[in-house]
Amino acid sequence: SCRAPCVNGGACVGPDQCECPRNATGPTCATPVCDPPCENGATCAAGNTCHCEEGTSGTRCEKRKCEYQPHQEPYTRGFRRLVSRRFQTKCDPWGWKTCVHTQPEYQTVYKTFYRTVYKCATPSTVTTDPRH
């Protein structure tokens, strides 16, 4: 006898033991199992059906409603660079002569790079050229 009833076609086969059909699992057969499994993060529901996430469709949620297209995304990196700073100074005892000296110093330089990322282009954002 089973205190909690077996569901989804499960049969009570011993004290609190349910024997589940191949489309269910768990102590009372309450967790549905989809065969073949659901795709793209979909949730399996009773009756071997899949509840699709937004942006997917199909019996197993295998179809994506968008087309992934490459985009160049900018990102900035900073790094320190050693440079020589030039400066002028008076270099004789009477202050008549001017000399040029260099002094090393660090400068922070920022540079923008680009990386390729793939973004979902839904049918409303996919542009088509009417001339083609």
Automatic annotation (TrEMBL):
The keyword Signal appears for this protein: yes
Superkingdom: Eukaryota
Disulfide bridge partners, by residue number: 34-44, 52-61
Gene3D superfamilies: Laminin (2.10.25.10)
SUPFAM superfamilies: EGF/Laminin (SSF57196)
InterPro entries (alphabetical): Dev_Signal_Modulators, EGF
Residue ranges annotated for the EGF-like domain, each copy included: 30-62
Keywords for the protein's UniProt record, in alphabetical order: Disulfide bond, EGF-like domain, Signal
Entries under SMART domains matching the protein: EGF (SM00181)
Protein name as catalogued: EGF-like domain-containing protein
Species, as recorded: Timema podura (Walking stick)
